[in-house]
């Protein structure tokens, strides 16, 4: 298997030329001193090195070996612990964490690129750090000063890890029905009792403590509250105390992601501490959840990039058949890259991956603006964008991640079905990204129901208006392409208006049409990003880079943009044919 | 896990009402005496019982246990051997075989339905019998009378099994480069030497002998010939003789299909017998290959049906959330079948599966006509249809099979990623169907290049004209839907004409656009079949059956038919954006 190499030129191009990170950073005092484009480039170089030399090499064996439960502790695959230690010591877990509490204070716009590399290198390994960073974010936003001081430095440093404990057997997408109880103690803590399932990183041997954020109900309430529950109790001086009634019931045997521990966690009067206000646990958990939703989209993006590299390398090496119309080198057999169908698959993966990276960086930029911008209006608008873009990033990036892995596997032919080539692992590993942290159906309903129609299209109109302005400013792309994307943006508004008008008299409309609407939005937004990239690339110092982006843009405009039209037409078809059939006829 | 239940009502409806099997059979002397609709229904009932009670129960364990290589023999998972014996003794391997040599002489139109059930019950197990039936077909078509008498009764009875040995490490899609040699002996036999990879059922413990059909080259030729090479030599009296220089090099570790042995087979001066003429081996092998291509399409179809059943059952049982607009039963939580997005997924799987079954039965009918029809014109036309439909059945059914399995897994949410629920196994098992027996890209190129434009659209025009006549005769479906499908049929011809006109000056056009053309054809043909089914169902004795088919047709017409338009538009966009990029820029 070839080593992983991060697409550093593409990453830097997006930061510098497409989304003007230097300007964004210079305008935010919290960022202006800590990061500039050269620092960012150095960090990306270092992340590339770590992903190539440390993380990617443990990927295949982790899949073969998997995690195992031994004497009540989950043991991770060979090499995970050593690599995790180095990863944590390098400060990568706390890359975007609060510098006053031990984080590195880097912008999310940069963090998403590092996350992408890590997921490209190994889906399963990267989750441990991602959940830790997400838990830290929620604690930072909603914890008391005491809790923050006690836990955040240890999470940012990677000495302890984080987990998100929500799902119970009877309460998955519908969290109203959780049964885990929290009983107050006299000292201000709570005793947590209940059982949680599907807990990623719920237990493992990478860190000495695991900090659980647990959803539970206070006595005599139907509301849900959030509690911090350490696996091992923490003394005032941060040394570890006694065990805390937290145990692993079992680990799941899964389709993939075998190096990631998915645990049934049992809490038996475990001591926990309230995070945020009583009965407001879902709001607090959503701080972590939204972080993880973007992260999981990036899991799909990282998979796409890894899949592209593997398939492109294979297509250049594998000799089979002759080019239609004769071999370009007059050989009797050619690399399969000469075949139109192989190119079609590679170009599909590549154009979706590069636009996906743009979506990821753009979302990261909005997160930074929402957190650090000085101007209240800028901040508020960015927060609306984050709301709009989070479900899209989660669903569209993870859906395209599976598509990419499957298409790359197809490029490998029969060899793609064999475990040792590693491409089938990508398919199995990334499949979960469409499911966990809220299924992609639920993301779409959140998007169309809450984020688009729920605020009467305000955020959507802003985003569309901004894209229209941007597109009109591009002078180095075809007018016909610009017109097509502009027309789709207009249609996105029209169709959403129609849904908004009809949603009360057709209560099933949003649920039934949300996935198509999200897909239409995704393919259109990728069209916006391709125009932006193709336009910006024409000034690139490397003429081949400019040519390549122009040709990739041509492919996207010719071959993929029209998917947006198909999906919009489906929303317009409404919910009748979906809802009318009697349940007994299914 | 719920038991598998064959969709018997749907199957009988297709045979009797949609494709008028009784008429087809009564007009063919070879069929008229052996089968009528009641016999067919009895056979389907029996097949359903065997699939439910014998084959499906070994599916999960076969995946967990897999095959293993022990002392040069492949050992299949527990239960495989006992079930295979009963399956073979029931005559199922030879269901469509020549009755003069021990087959049951049943029509393929019926055989495809039995195949579907078996693949629904267990993908991996069913391959052993499928390859045996395919090998028998090739021997029947191209073997000498002596070979036929010696081998076919043992293959039809399932006492021996068959394998297809084509691929070598350097020769996959491009078989010109095979290196396996065949040296003639004085007694008319040949010594075969070489190594083959990816040999499904190349060795196993289910039968006492394995009959390999091996592609090899005669001395001083570049042509390819076909040889029958038994694992163990066969004496004149059909008793087994000595070992024959055929050995298993290793078995592959795969993404799925773990109960199916995928072998590296080594031939070391193994005795073989020429099948067909020297240097005409590919033509002979294509008899088996075409059989397997349809079978592999049916693997995808069987997967779709199994996926639908599992997901529909789950959606009725799993309680989560409340219906948009309020619970229909005023419950606080509803089965997830109330949610539009879940229904959308189930209806997508179901409408594609039912139309896929129609494609499978229609292709089976054409195979029967091509083989048994009295009228030479009818026979020749059916043979053209078989040529046209085989790559479509293989690719479109297997592509939709993966889509179905993935969508069904999505319905299961987090539980779909866990091995014990079994739905993830379907995804892993069916993934290979898009790759083996010629990748789906190669099917599409065969379809558009050879079958459509290669004969100047003759067969396509015939098929379209027939569908136009059929559609115009339907009186119980919407005229608007008829018009949409008719327009698509017309566009299929127009677009293919365009490709045909440009294929010489744009040599990469077919390769680059074939997959989109095949998809456009598939979705349009499914539209034809849905109109046919909805029209025929209105006379059904069960009014709920009629209502259900009308509602499924409504869904297909509203939500899926437009995919044909998208794919046609892609063919019209041509190959420029696919071919222009320099290979170094990938």
Write up what this structure looks like.
The structure is a homodimer of 586-residue chains. The first copy, chain A, has 586 residues and is an alpha+beta fold. Chain A has a domain at 441-577. Chain A has helices spanning 8-18, 21-26, 29-32, 37-55, 59-65, 80-89, 108-121, 123-142, 145-156, 281-317, 340-372, 376-411, 423-431, 440-452, 458-473, 479-502, 509-537, 543-560, 562-572, 576-579; strands at 68-70, 73-75, 160-165, 181-184, 190-200, 209-216, 225-230, 232-234, 240-243, 246-251, 262-275. In chain A, the strands form 3 sheets. In chain A, strands 3, 4, 5, 6, 7, 10 and 11 form a 7-stranded mixed β-sheet that branches. In chain A, strands 1-2 form a two-stranded antiparallel sheet. The first copy, chain A, is globular. Chains A and B meet through helix 10, helix 11, helix 12, helix 13 and helix 14 of A and helix 10, helix 11, helix 12, helix 13 and helix 14 of B.
């Amino acid at each position: 298997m070839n080593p992983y190499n991060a697409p550093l030129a593409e990453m830097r191009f997006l930061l510098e030329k497409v989304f003007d990170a230097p300007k964004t950073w210079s305008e935010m005092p919290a960022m202006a001193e800590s990061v500039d484009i050269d620092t960012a480039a150095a960090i990306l170089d270092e992340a590339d090195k770590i992903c190539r030399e440390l993380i990617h090499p443990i990927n295949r064996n982790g899949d073969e070996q998997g995690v195992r439960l031994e004497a009540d502790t989950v043991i991770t695959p060979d090499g995970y612990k050593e690599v995790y230690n180095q990863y944590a010591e390098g400060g990568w877990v706390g890359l975007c964490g609060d510098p006053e509490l031990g984080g590195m204070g880097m912008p999310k716009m940069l963090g998403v690129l590092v996350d992408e590399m890590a997921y490209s290198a190994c889906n399963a390994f990267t989750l441990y750090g991602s959940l830790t960073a997400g838990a830290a974010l929620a604690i930072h936003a909603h914890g008391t000063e005491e809790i923050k001081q006690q836990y955040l430095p240890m999470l940012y440093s990677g000495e302890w890890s984080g987990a998100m404990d929500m799902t119970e057997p009877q309460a998955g997408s519908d969290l109203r029905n959780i049964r885990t109880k929290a009983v107050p103690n006299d000292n201000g803590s709570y005793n947590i009792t209940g059982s949680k399932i599907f807990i990623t990183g719920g237990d493992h041997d990478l860190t000495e403590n695991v900090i659980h954020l647990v959803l539970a109900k206070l006595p005599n309430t139907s509301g849900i509250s959030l509690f911090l529950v350490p696996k091992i109790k923490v003394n005032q001086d941060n040394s570890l105390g006694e065990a805390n009634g937290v145990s692993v019931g079992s680990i799941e045997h899964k389709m993939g992601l075998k190096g990631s521990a998915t645990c049934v966690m049992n809490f038996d009067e475990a001591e926990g501490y309230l995070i945020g206000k009583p009965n407001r646990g879902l709001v607090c958990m959503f701080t972590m959840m939204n972080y993880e939703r973007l992260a999981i989209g990036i899991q799909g993006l990282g998979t796409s990039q890894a899949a592209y590299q593997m398939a492109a390398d294979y297509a250049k090496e594998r000799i089979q058949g002759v080019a239609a119309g004769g071999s370009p080198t007059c050989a009797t057999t050619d690399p399969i890259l000469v075949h139109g169908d192989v190119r079609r698959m590679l170009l599909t993966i590549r154009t979706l991956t590069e636009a996906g990276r743009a979506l990821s960086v753009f979302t990261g930029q909005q997160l930074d603006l929402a957190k650090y911008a000085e101007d209240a209006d800028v901040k508020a608008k960015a927060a609306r964008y984050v709301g709009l873009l989070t479900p899209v990033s989660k669903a569209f990036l993870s859906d395209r991640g599976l598509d990419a892995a499957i298409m790359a596997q197809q490029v490998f032919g029969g060899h793609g079905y064999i475990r040792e080539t590693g491409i089938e692992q990508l398919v199995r590993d990334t499949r979960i990204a469409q499911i966990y942290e809220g299924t992609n159906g639920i993301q779409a309903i959140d998007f169309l129901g809450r984020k688009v129609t729920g605020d009467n299209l305000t955020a959507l109109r802003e985003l569309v208006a901004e894209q229209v302005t941007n597109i009109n400013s591009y002078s180095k792309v075809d007018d016909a392409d610009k017109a097509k994307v502009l027309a789709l943006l207009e249609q996105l508004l029209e169709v959403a208006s129609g849904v908004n008008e009809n949603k009360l008299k057709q209560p099933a409309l949003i649920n039934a049409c949300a996935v198509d609407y999200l897909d239409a939005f995704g393919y259109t937004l990728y069209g916006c990003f391709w125009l932006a990239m193709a336009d910006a690339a024409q000034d690139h110092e490397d003429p081949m880079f400019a040519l390549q982006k122009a040709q990739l843009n041509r492919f996207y405009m010719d071959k993929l943009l029209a998917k947006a039209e198909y999906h919009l037409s489906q929303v317009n078809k409404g919910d009748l044919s979906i809802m009318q059939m009697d349940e007994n006829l299914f």
